[in-house]
Design goal:
Number of helices: 1
Order of helices and strands: HEEEEE
CATH class: Mainly Beta
Radius of gyration: 15 Å
Helix content: under 10%
Oligomer: single chain
Shape: elongated
Strand content: over 45%
CATH topology: SH3 type barrels
Largest sheet: 5 strands, antiparallel
């Protein structure tokens, strides 16, 4: 895996990018093809994630073949780390 250096010349590990996303909105995909969007409140060494103001995103094709997204607000949740398939981290340049 390629490591990128930050402005101070230090190398960042993937966990460092996750740390930079705390208190920012992230998108995660978990097993059974489920998507969640919420603010990352925290995480632990097992990648258990605490998400605040979370919405579950449902994607499907309508009768015309267009992809439609629907959202269900589910509030604050803890996602068990071994269910996570990917995490779309917050933009490191955003505040």
């Amino acid at each position: 895996m390629e490591k990128r250096s930050n402005q101070s010349g230090k190398f960042n590990r993937p966990i460092d990018y996750l740390k930079n996303s705390v208190n920012k909105v992230i998108l995660i995909k978990v097993k059974r093809n489920r998507l969640f969007r919420g603010m990352l409140g925290g995480f632990d060494e097992h990648l258990n994630l605490y998400l605040e103001n979370t919405s579950q995103i449902f994607e499907y094709q309508d009768e015309d073949g267009k992809v439609v997204e629907e959202f269900e607000t589910i509030g604050n949740v803890v996602v068990r780390g071994d269910n996570v398939i990917f995490i779309n981290l917050a933009d490191p340049n955003s505040d």
